[in-house]
Specification:
Shape: globular
Distance between the termini: 51 Å
Largest sheet: 8 strands, parallel, barrel
Radius of gyration: 25 Å
Structural class: alpha/beta
Bound molecules: 3-methyl-2-oxobutanoic acid, zinc ion
CATH architecture of the largest domain: Alpha-Beta Barrel
Helix content: 40-55%
Oligomer: single chain
Length: 516
């Protein structure tokens, strides 16, 4: 069976989702999980777009050993040079250059003739090939490009040295028939097409991204691109986990294999959702909370008699455990350490101690600690902002009732090490808490989004708060978890504010390195 390459762009196209703002530690965590998941190529960012992106890509390039690391570049020498600096230490560096080919984009955005576009594409591919062993070229807005022009430019860029040709449905406009036909036409009409990998990249504006991806596979695509949970620009990209499972379950229709480790899907999805603050809808295919829940009596009866009556995907296939109750009050450090290793974390002794303390604290008030709870605690510790002077929550109290004015009292330690305390009111308990925190923090804060979810089920479930805010006009997101919703909310607030200090420290470090 032919193998399809899996190209993940969660950290580039996915990170372009409105409001998503990952820091370097978080990007690295996702990259490590993508490596465990078995993707062939991961697009780590767009190095020329910002210093932060450059550093994020370089970190990932230095760390990842079992996947090719790539980055996005405009068809410009300066972008290519910057990308090389970010990627040159990767085990398998590759570059992804894009240039629009549709009449709309060439005329209005690029203001170039088709001949000029061909020339730029050829020049930049051959320039990039002097540095990179592999160069992917994307015909941006390919699905609205004249097919004969597409055939012409693809032939030229392959001659110039492109090793992968990607045909994106940039605006999510195509139907499966049209998108499949474009791949068939290109396969049949580009004389040198067999020299390259042919890739599909779909957006979900009309809800057809996965269907379009599958149509491309059946018409000659040998690589497919997507993001975890389908996050991305506007309505998002093709959900990688959805097309991966479709290839597996409907192998009779799509006789292809991949290198993916499918039972890492749930964990990858959870991590991306947690770190981006983008919740997965309960009814989302493959990874939604209800994807394996059978509600109707008739369905439940069928499932009990024979699971295949109503279940086409087993939860185990994608790493959903039906009974993930793990450790409790009496579990010792040894069992805890074993468990976190099983969950794939490599913690220093110091971090194990910190995590064990947090776990013990949780068992005081929660009888059953599940994998999901542990995953939340461990991810928080793994991505904690450390070695930075920051705001720390010392204590808080909120008075709330149906007949009084909600009032919060908070004590904080400032980044300068000073203890401050005050009380404020609000229209609700969270507002009172946030007003108080805001009044103790020197930075200019504007809250733009807040949401609360529970980890798992039950009255004693952990609460997780996600917020977005601007701090001194920089957009940041934050998250915090605790058994109490107000404590989770306070932690999320401070986590967002402290990111500004973390980013500042990173910038200073980068400047120092640049001067050396
Ligand atoms: O959707 C798109 O066209 C892209 C390109 C940059 C490949 O993401
Ligand atoms: Zn895209």
């Amino acid at each position: 069976m032919q193998r399809i390459n899996i190209f993940d762009t969660t950290l580039r196209d996915g990170e372009q989702s409105p409001g998503v703002n990952l820091n370097q530690l978080e990007k690295l965590e996702i990259a490590k999980q993508l490596e465990r998941f078995g993707v062939d190529i991961m697009e780590a960012g767009f190095p020329a777009s910002s210093q932060g992106d450059f550093e994020g890509v370089r970190n990932i390039a230095r760390t990842i050993k079992n996947a090719s690391v790539t980055a996005l570049s405009r068809a410009k020498k300066s972008d290519i040079d910057i990308s090389w600096e970010a990627l040159k230490e990767a085990q398998e560096p590759s570059l992804h250059i894009f240039l629009a080919t549709s009449p709309i984009h060439m005329t209005y955005k690029l203001k170039k003739t088709p001949e000029q576009v061909v020339q730029i594409a050829e020049d930049m591919i051959s320039y990039a090939r002097k540095k990179f062993p592999n160069v992917e070229w994307s015909a941006e807005d390919a699905s609205r490009t004249d097919l004969d022009f597409l055939v012409h430019i693809i032939e030229k860029v392959i001659d110039a040295g492109a090793t992968v040709i990607n045909l994106p449905d940039t605006v999510g406009y195509s139907t499966p028939e049209e998108y499949g036909y474009m791949f068939k036409y290109v396969r049949e009409n580009v004389p040198n097409i067999d020299k390259v990998v042919l890739s599909a990249h779909c957006h979900d504006d009309l809800g057809m991204a996965v269907a379009n991806t599958m149509a491309a596979i059946n018409n000659g695509a040998t690589q497919v691109e997507g993001t975890i949970n389908g996050i991305g620009e506007r309505a998002g990209n093709a959900s990688l986990e959805e097309f991966a499972v479709a290839l597996n379950i409907r192998n009779n229709v799509y006789p292809f294999t991949t290198n993916l480790v499918l039972n890492e899907i749930k964990r990858t999805s959870d991590l991306v959702s947690k770190l981006t603050g983008m919740p997965v809808p309960a009814n989302k295919a493959v990874v939604g909370r209800n994807a394996f829940a059978h509600e109707s009596g008739i369905h439940q009866d069928g499932i009990l008699k024979n699971a295949s009556t109503y279940e086409i995907i087993t939860p185990e296939l994608v790493g959903v455990q039906s009974n993930n109750l793990v450790l409790g009050k009496h579990s010792g450090r040894h069992a805890f350490k074993d468990k976190i290793e099983q969950l794939g974390y490599q913690f220093s002794d110091e971090k194990v101690t910190e995590a064990f303390k947090a776990f013990k604290l949780l068992t005081d008030s929660k009888k059953e600690v599940t994998d999901d709870d542990l995953f939340t605690i461990l991810t928080e510790i793994q991505t904690d902002i450390q070695n930075v002077k920051k705001y720390e929550l010392l204590s808080f109290q909120v008075q709330y009732g149906s007949s009084n004015i909600p009032t919060a009292t908070v004590a904080l330690k400032t980044p300068e090490g000073i203890q401050v305390e005050t009380a404020c009111t609000g229209k609700g308990s969270v507002e009172a808490l946030y007003n108080t925190l805001e009044s103790l923090i020197k930075e200019k804060i504007h809250l733009t989004d807040y949401h609360l979810s529970s980890i798992g089920q039950g009255r004693d479930a952990l609460a997780q708060a996600h917020i977005k805010m601007t701090v001194n006009d920089t957009t940041v997101s934050g998250r915090g978890s605790a058994q109490d919703v107000l404590e989770a909310s306070a932690k999320a607030f401070l986590n967002a504010v402290n990111r500004v200090f973390f980013n500042k420290k990173l910038e200073e470090k980068e400047k120092e390195t640049a001067q050396l």
